[in-house]
Design a protein that fits this description.
Two copies of one chain form a homodimer. By secondary structure, chain A is an alpha/beta fold. The first copy, chain A, has helices at residues 3-11, 19-26, 30-38, 45-58, 64-69, 87-102, 116-128, 143-149, 174-187, 203-218, 235-247, 260-272, 306-321; strands spanning 76-81, 106-111, 133-137, 155-158, 167-170, 193-197, 228-230, 254-257, 282-287, 300-303, 334-336.
DNA sequence: TTGTACGCGTTATCAA
DNA sequence: TTGATAACGCGTACAA
């Protein structure tokens, strides 16, 4: 039985170490301990050492609930996503979690389910839990709502372009990415390109479609509305949209799907109809989900590092939390040419 | 300007409604309000009505932090997953979230990353946050650790078979599911069946492999170790494992992958090597991820409703939280025959 | 059955 | 720079 053993028996007799116990052990007042932990004021470096030593010895960790009650920070950040199991946003969540963890913050995830009312409710719940900040992944909420909220706490938004005092946004280069995909097909000789869009009331979907149209006209090609089909960003929606395109009788040698999931569905519809990819029809997706490297054939798609975007969002939040100004970064989209695209047959 | 308008201006002058304000408005003491909210004691039904009315009028919601500090419940449940963006566990997370939400509980997600040390750390963090219960999705942690923890708070585990006082587990029928897949192939006339396993130190992987071997021997077939390749439950692992199988020169007409993701990877490897699925080789997966209905060809696989499992886990947790005993339910696995399997050629 | 008074662990305010 | 003291909002013995 060592000396430290004995100490721990007596000192840690009562369960959880508290800030007060640290203060006693270090021979200072509780307020001093608090100040040292939060860096709220300057303190004698000798006491500082003693306090740190006591914290070590007691394995003290501040109680988030008590902090919250007393008006301090809760060390938690609310993250509003749409569906917790979205393959797309999932990567961003991982990036957010990784960075937040490094900074000892805890993420509180909530799902808005692409529903304005639910989003507002979940946001209210997160505020009720007194999160220190909010990271919002896309969604249907009006920009104004976020701008208002940012008066109370820092907000980082992904998938929108709004900025303000405590409001920072990291947008994806949907427009440019879409142009990249279009350019790729055009350079392969495709002239009749079908487009499977996401829901038209969806910001990302709008900008991707816009990029497609813009690139088309820059290359002196006309946009043919008959070659546009709207899906829901899911496999099933891509499948149905492609079937509609096929049944329309319209000719096309290539297809752009506004996201990879719809590309998967479109690919199956194509296959069912007897078309080969890429021999008969070229297919391009958007997002470059991890899975896209393993489809048959591996999918040519627009890559965007969603994980990286999550990381950037979390870093921006940390900066905001420190009253710093996050540095704006654009995450460039880039084309990943795999095997689902090929030179158009003459 | 209506009467209620005026009231709201005066009554809600101070920010957040508190339990005390409710008490005042209802003409009772704070403790009575507390009792009514928590059902801690019987109260005069007249006062009860008055209090509920006051709560409504003030839109009062108890502060979780204050509750936590005072020793009450935090209305939060910790959920330990492995990766927040896992396509497999993601569905379970959604089920958990849906049910928890219905009961006004908030999930606190944490990722263990298939690492025993990290899992323990995250669990500690969740306890520090004073969650009312814990839902653990698989993981590498020793059963004993969970059993010990269950003395302090209710725990529901998915992917293990341990039970105890405040410990409930919902296991997947890995064994039976695997037998189903094997039986399906055998009934199609396949005799040489390759098996792409998950990590051998992984519980699910072990039981699935066991099911495969068992069914084989029941059908008087011998397990050929040369037809076993170990992957990592990811697409890339399935891809590599299949390549190894192909290079071994061993003959086989069908393959079982221990999960869908590895099946996707294996499918690509097969395709790259010039084999057609299912014409040359039949392929079966496990899990029936939503995506599996959209692969080329649509994948025959063992379906298990992971979402449903999440729902059951959350319901069990709610029961435990109410000091009730959850009713044990087994979620049956079932084979979904799609187009990646076919009668063996003679 | 109901109310009073105190404590939970921390931060903020104010003096010293 | 430091320390006492008063909140923060709620649950709960204890008393009535």
């Amino acid at each position: 039985m060592t000396d430290s053993d004995t100490q721990s028996h007596t000192a840690t007799a009562s369960r959880k170490p508290t800030l007060g116990m640290v203060a006693t052990l270090a021979g200072v007042s509780p307020s001093t301990v608090s100040r040292i932990i939060n860096g709220t004021a300057k303190v004698n470096s000798a006491k500082m050492a003693a306090v740190h030593q006591a914290i070590e010895q007691l394995q003290f960790r501040p109680d988030p609930a008590a902090r919250s009650l007393a008006g301090g920070s809760t060390m938690s950040v609310g993250v509003l996503t749409q569906f917790i199991d979205s393959p797309y946003y999932g990567e961003a969540l991982r990036g957010i979690e990784d960075i937040l963890r490094e900074h000892h913050y805890v993420p509180l995830f909530a799902s808005g389910r692409w529903n304005e009312v639910e989003e507002a409710e979940r946001l209210a719940l997160l505020q009720e839990r007194k999160v220190d900040g909010l990271i919002v992944l896309s969604g249907r909420l009006a920009d104004q709502v976020l701008m208002d909220m940012s008066k109370d706490l820092p907000i980082v938004v992904m998938g929108r372009s709004i900025t303000g005092h405590q409001l920072f946004s990291i947008d994806i280069d949907n427009f440019e990415g879409s142009r990249l995909a279009t350019r790729h097909l055009i350079s392969l000789g495709h002239r009749n390109i079908a487009y499977v869009s996401g829901p038209l009331d969806h910001g990302d979907a709008q900008r991707r479609l816009e990029g497609f149209k813009t690139e088309l006209s820059k290359r002196s090609l006309v946009f043919n509305p008959a070659l546009l089909a709207v899906g829901d960003f899911q496999e099933s929606g891509g499948f149905k949209a492609m079937n509609r395109l096929l049944q329309s009788g319209e000719m096309f040698s290539a297809v752009i799907a506004a996201n990879d999931q719809m590309a998967y569905g479109a690919r199956l519809a194509l296959s069912n109809a007897g078309y080969r990819v890429p021999e008969d029809i070229s297919l391009v997706g958007f997002d470059d989900l991890p899975h896209s490297a393993f489809t048959i054939p591996p999918l040519t798609t627009v890559h965007q590092s969603v994980y990286e975007i999550g990381v950037l969002a979390a870093k921006a939040m940390i900066a905001l939390l420190k009253k710093e100004t996050p540095t704006a970064v654009t995450v460039p989209a880039k084309l990943v040419a795999r095997e689902s695209t090929r030179v158009a047959r003459v």
